[in-house]
Automatic annotation (TrEMBL):
Domain of life the protein comes from: Bacteria
Designated name of the protein: Electron transfer flavoprotein subunit beta
Gene3D superfamilies named in the record: HUPs (3.40.50.620)
Cofactor dependence: AMP
InterPro entries per the UniProt record, alphabetical: ETF_a/b_N (IPR014730), ETF_b (IPR012255), ETF_beta_N (IPR033948), Rossmann-like_a/b/a_fold (IPR014729)
CDD domains in the record: ETF_beta
Sample GO molecular function, one term: electron transfer activity
SUPFAM superfamilies recorded: Adenine nucleotide alpha hydrolases-like (SSF52402)
Positions of the Electron transfer flavoprotein alpha/beta-subunit N-terminal domain: 23-212
Coiled coil regions, renumbered to chain: none
Family classification: Belongs to the ETF beta-subunit/FixA family.
Binding partners and assembly: Heterodimer of an alpha and a beta subunit.
Phylogenetic lineage: Bacteria, Pseudomonadati, Thermodesulfobacteriota, Syntrophia, Syntrophales
Length: 256
């Protein structure tokens, strides 16, 4: 089976994000970058399919030179090869342009199933995988917490409020991974060493015959307003403190 996993490099969830003074984006200085957590579930599922059906896992990413770290992480987990589209002319690409580049890269290789994270934790759009599926004319199964396959079809569970959808589609298909689908493995030391020798094909968008402009752009980024300082209610009598708390919640916070 030919399995593809798309990954994106994003700021670490513990990183302190600062907006540039001109509002044009985030200040990237000092930020630690990691593989998007939802993409980790996609990579793990791809590796499980490889273990079950055999074949190869190809990691595809679109991003600057530093994104190679996320490819190497996936290769250290057990993936076989990678494709890295590194093109500064696409910096700040929106979901449509990103999906266009990913689709062009994936069209150059055989594929039976494509795994993506259900969304990226930086822009939080959740659109790339859906657009990718449309561009490849494939069925899409999104926000998946369980996936079973016989090699020809895939049956998934998609949670909805108060229930679950069970959806089945013929392969090839695009599957987007949600937390709960699996538990991503850690890269072993031998895996890390082997990853250094695994092939990664670095391309520009022009190498793929892609010339697409973003349909949208970020006009300005504004940090959230600072939270007002909290209040401490002092005193020795619990009843008096409770009464004062209720008064503040009613008159100042206006939540009761």
């Amino acid at each position: 089976m030919n399995i593809v996993a798309c990954v994106k490099q994003v700021p670490d969830t513990e990183a302190q994000i600062k907006v540039k003074p001109d509002g044009s984006g985030i200040d990237e200085s000092g930020i630690k970058w990691v593989m998007n957590p939802y993409d980790e579930f996609g990579v793990e599922e791809a590796l499980k399919y490889k273990e079950k059906f055999g074949g190869d896992v190809t990691i595809v990413t679109f991003g600057p030179a530093r994104a190679m770290e996320s490819i190497r992480t996936a290769l250290a987990m057990g993936a076989d090869k990678g494709i890295h589209i590194d093109d500064p002319s696409y910096d700040g690409a929106d979901a449509y342009a990103t999906a266009s580049v990913l689709a062009a890269a994936i069209k150059t290789i055989p594929y039976d199933v494509i795994f993506c994270g259900q969304r990226a934790i930086d822009d939080d759009s959740g659109q790339v995988a859906a657009i990718l599926a449309d561009m490849l004319d494939l069925p899409q199964l999104t926000v998946v917490t369980k996936a079973e396959s016989d090699g020809k079809t895939v049956k998934v569970v998609r949670p909805v409020e108060g229930a679950n959808f069970v959806i089945e589609a013929a392969l090839p298909a695009v599957v987007t991974a949600q937390k709960g689908l699996n538990e991503p493995r850690y890269a072993s030391l031998p895996g890390i060493m082997k990853a250094k020798k695994k092939p990664v094909d670095v391309k520009k968008a022009a190498d793929l015959g892609v010339s697409v402009e973003s349909k949208s752009k970020v006009a300005k980024m504004v940090p959230p307003p600072a939270r007002p300082p909290g209040k401490i209610i002092s005193g020795d009598e619990p009843a008096a403190k409770a009464a004062e708390l209720a008064k503040l919640l009613r008159e100042e916070a206006k939540v009761i």
